[in-house]
Amino acid sequence: MKIKFSYLDEQFRNPEPILAEIKRLVESGDFTLGKPLQEFENSFAKLCGTKYAIGVGTGTDALRLSLIALGIKEGDEVITVPNSFYATAGAIATTGAKPVFVDVKNDYVIDVDLIENALTEKTKAIMPVHLYGKPANMPAIMKIAKENNLEVIEDACQGITAEVDGKTVGSFGAAGGFSVHPLKGINVWGDGGIITTNSEAIREKLLLLRNHGLKSRDECAVYGYNCRLDTLQAVVGNHIIKDVSRITEKRIGNAKYYDSELSKIEGIAIPPRKKNEKEVYHTYVIRAENRDGLLQHLIKNGIEAKVHYPIPLHLQEASKHLGYKKGDFPETEAQAKSIITLPAHQYLKDEEREYIVKKIKEFYK
Amino acid sequence: MSAPVKVRYVNFPLQYEGVKNELLPAVQKILESGNYILGPELEKLEIDFANLCGTKYALGVANGTDALIMSMKALGIGRGDEVITVPNSFIASTASIVMNEAKPVFVDVREDYNINPELIESAITPKTKAIIPVHLTGRPADMKRIMEIARKHKLFVIEDCAQSVGAKFDGKAVGSFGNTGCFSLHPLKNLAAVGDGGFITTNDTELYVKLKKMRNHGLKNRDECEFFSFNSRLDNLQAGIISVKMKHLDKWTKRRREIADFYRKNLSGVVTMPEERKNDYAVYHTFVVQAENRDELQAHLLSKGIETKIHYPIPIHLQEAAKHLGYKKGSFPVTEEQTKHILSLPIYPELAQEQIELVVREIKNFYAR
Fold first, then answer.
1. pTM of whole model > 0.80?
2. Chain A 281-340, CB below 8 Å of chain B: which residues?
C-alpha cells in the first residue's frame, strides 16, 4: 500500500464547479482585490468569530504585516516558540524585531509558565503558535499579555477552526495570522494568507499595508507592500471553506482512531488532549521511541510519514546571532528527536489508517 | 456624459479569448498534478524568462514590488543608505526603497518620461548605494549613461522593468544591464498573470543563490534555515499561465508597436509624444501623450465612449507618504509639468483598427472645435 502525505491531487477529483468559476473570473478580469476575495474575507471572519478578515499574500505575510501594523520594529522583542515552521521566526525577524524563544510543554505549544521569565523591557508582543492544529493556552496567554501590556499575535497558520473554551483561534489576540497554503485545512492552489482582527484601526492599517499604502488609485497615504491574496485563489478558498467542518471532522476522526489504537503501543506517547479544546489536526504528531527507525520502517512500507520539524528554530543557522545553544530548550529539543507525523488528512481511507497502525505495531513487536 | 463604451482602456476578456484554448488545458494539468508551490512549470518558465531577457538567471517571486524589495535587500541596501530613482512612477518603485529603510532620492525625468541621466551625478552623496531607473511606459531608460555613472561611482543598478518586459536598449534587453532587473506580471502588464506575480533577473550567481533562498523562508533545504526571511514565490499555477502567454508576447508587442506608430503618425502636431530613439525597442505598456487642456480632452473622449487614464496624476514626491522626505512643489519641474498634461491612450494587441482610428479622430475633433 502507498499512502501519500499530500492529498492535493485527490482534492482535484471533481474540479468542474471550481474550474467553471475560475473560467468566469478569468473572463471578467476581476483579478486584483476582486469580489470573490471580499466574499472569502467575510466567510473567513465569520468562521473565526472576528469582525474582520484581510486576505494577504501568504501566512508568513499575515504574521509579518500584523506585527508591522501593531508597530513592532527594530529594537523590539517578540516572544514565540522554537518548535515551529521557519516563518514564525521569519515574520518577526523581517520586521527588524528580535525573536525570543520560550520552550513548549509536552502538548507541543508554548509553556505559559515560562513566558514571564522571558519578558524584558523590550518585549512588545507574544506570538503563540497553534502548532499542528493544537491551540495554545490562550486564556492564560491573554492574561499575561494584559498584565504586562503586550500585544498578542496568534500564529494560527496551522490552526484553522481550532478552539479553546468554544472560542476560535485568531479571535483572542489583536490579530490572528492564517495560511491557506496548499497543505492547510482550508487551502488554495498557490500561496495565500489571511489575517483576522476585531480592531477596525488594525484593519485599516492592514488594508493600506497590503496594497501599496493606497487610499485611492492615485493617493498614497503611507509606503506599503504589495501583498494581496489573489482573487483567483479566493475563488478556490470560497469553495473549500464551505467544506471546512467536514474536512475537520474527518481529521479529528482519524486522530481519535490513532489515539485509541496507538496508545496501546509501548514506545508511542500520545500528547495530552484537553476537554476544553478543539484540536484540528493540521498534522497528527506523536512521540516515538527509536523515531528514526520507525520513520524508515514506515517509509519502506509506502507510508509517507514526516517530521515537523527535525531541527528546532534556535539551532538553525539563521538563529546564530541570537546566541542560543543546544540545551536551552530541553522539551523542544527532546521532541525534535522523537516526534513523527502520520498522514491524517481528510482523504485517508479506513483501510489506510488501519494499515498504518498495523505497521507501527509491527515495528514495536 | 456617459456614452456606451466603444474603446475600453483595458479588455481582459478579449485577451482571454485569444489564448483560452491553450490556457485552460495548461491550468487543468497543473491543478490535477497538485504541484502548486515551486513546481516544474515555474522552473521551466524561469529558464524561458531568463532567455527572453538574455540573463543567466530569472527567479519567480510574488510580485514586482517584492522583486525590488528583495533585490535591494540581497545587495545589502538598508538603513542610512540612499537610492536614486524618479518621482514619476508607480508608487512601488519608491516604496520598495523605504521598505528597506533606505532613503529614496528623486531625480527629474526627460521628455521621454525616463530618468534624466545628466541630473543623476548631482544627486549622488557618500550615502548613495544604488540607482533604480524605471523603464516607464515600456520605454527603456538611457542604460548606457546610467551604467557609466554607476560604474564611475561604484553604485548598484536595479532596473525597474515592471512595465517593460521585452524592451531593448541598443538591442540589449532591459533587465540585463543592472545587478538585477525587476519585472511585474500583474494583470495589467504586457505579460500578465491572472493575479499577482513578479520576476527578478540577474547575471550574478551569488546574488541568484541568495535571492532563491530569500524568497523561500531562507531555506537551504526542507529542514535547514540559513537566514530568517520572506515567503515570496510566484505561484506555479501563474507560471503555467505565463508560459502559455509568453509564446504570444512577441506578436503582441509588435501589435502594440504598430498601434503606437499609428498614433504617432496621426497625432503628430496635435498632442506631444516622445519619439522613439533609433536603437530603442519600446514595448508600449502605456502610450502616454501630453495634451493641452488634458482634463477636458479626457472628458471629451469619455463622452465619445473612449476610456483613457492618467499615469500618474500625483507625482510620488507630492504624495502624503513622501512628506517626511522634505520635497515640495517645484522640486521636479519636468515631472510636475508632465503630470498636468499626460494622458494614456488605449493600447493593447486586441484593439481593432477602427477603434484606434476613432481615438485619433476624436482627439482631432476636440482640438478642431
1. yes
2. 309-311, 313, 316-319
